[in-house]
Amino acid sequence: MIKTIEWTAAGVRFIDQTRLPTEEVYVVCRTYQEVADAIRNMIVRGAPAIGVAAAMGIALGVDQSQARDVSALRNEMGQICRKIGETRPTAVNLFWAIRRMQQKFEAAAPEGVHQVKATLVAEAQVMLVEDIAANEAMGRFGATLMPSSGGVLTHCNAGALATCGYGTALGVIRAAVDAGKQIHVFADETRPFLQGARLTAWELMKDGISTTVIADNMAGAMMRQGKIKAVVVGADRIAANGDVANKIGTYSVAVLAKEHGIPFYVAAPWSTVDMNTPTGEQIPIEQRPHREVTHHGGKQMAPDGVKVENPAFDVTPSKYVTAIVTERGIAKAPYTSSLQELGEMAGVSN
Length: 350
Ligand code: MRU
Description:
Helices cover about 40% and strands about 20% of the residues. The chain is an alpha/beta fold. The longest helix has about 30 residues, at about 115-145. A seven-stranded mixed beta sheet has the order 6-5-4-7-10-15-16, sandwiched between helices. The protein contains eleven helices and 16 strands. 5-S-methyl-1-O-phosphono-5-thio-D-ribulose binds near residues 45, 46, 47, 234 and 236.
């Protein structure tokens, strides 16, 4: 299994997702600042992976602190969380992870500095294990929604690389394939960062899952030709009404799917559901450097000085979403009540 993130004695280790698919290189971040940079520069990316990376960065920073008492350590913790919280604004998993680490800090605080450090280091590793378990549960639920055979379209990378292993949308596909379904994946290349072409294709091929890469502007034609039976994507934040923020281009795919009568599924762990954000309107959308659009592989693709927009995500209104698969179960419209019900499920952390 690909180890997207790993806690090691030397620091937090990531597979460098900016170098795939041509180079399989790992980087070790030795400080929390290096972890923050790895998140911002997309060495590690994908909402669930960002959440666990944030937790590991916090654990690393706290563990390396020279603070002698809890109050000084709390000040440093604030600084660390601020730095990590400034990296990427859309994936709510980042803020979920910071909150969870802050709660753990306070729970251990009465027992002193040593205990706080040990608690946070252990918690970050628990979150990694829980993430894989959540993906496997999503896979079990989501596989039932997949067609018994035919093309399934996905956008961006919501796989092992975007999580701690197995994946959300790709976890659903993996589980369906394991259950004997004859699925062929169509992977949108996902301009401008090419997560589909570079990452989804790479990890599915590693698993021997039949995959075709298409340019983003081919999806509609493929649907019209009857090549796509279902769409499954991940999410960076799901609002309380079921609106879904995901990689830019997801909205276009959802609208196309509706026009062609194709189900559009979203698979995401409960940590991606933000019940404090009422609708997609309030989800902050990260704007990334223009160079990601104007240049490719170091080569300039657009004239000097041209105006550029580069929103990393868009919002798909819930009316286009056939179902949301989580580790707690499947939510369907009306999402305000179905997500609320899943949220009230006891015995699941978050
Ligand atoms: O900018 P990225 O690569 O972090 O965006 C990733 C996505 O949009 C994924 O679809 C989403 O995080 C779900 S990952 C399981």
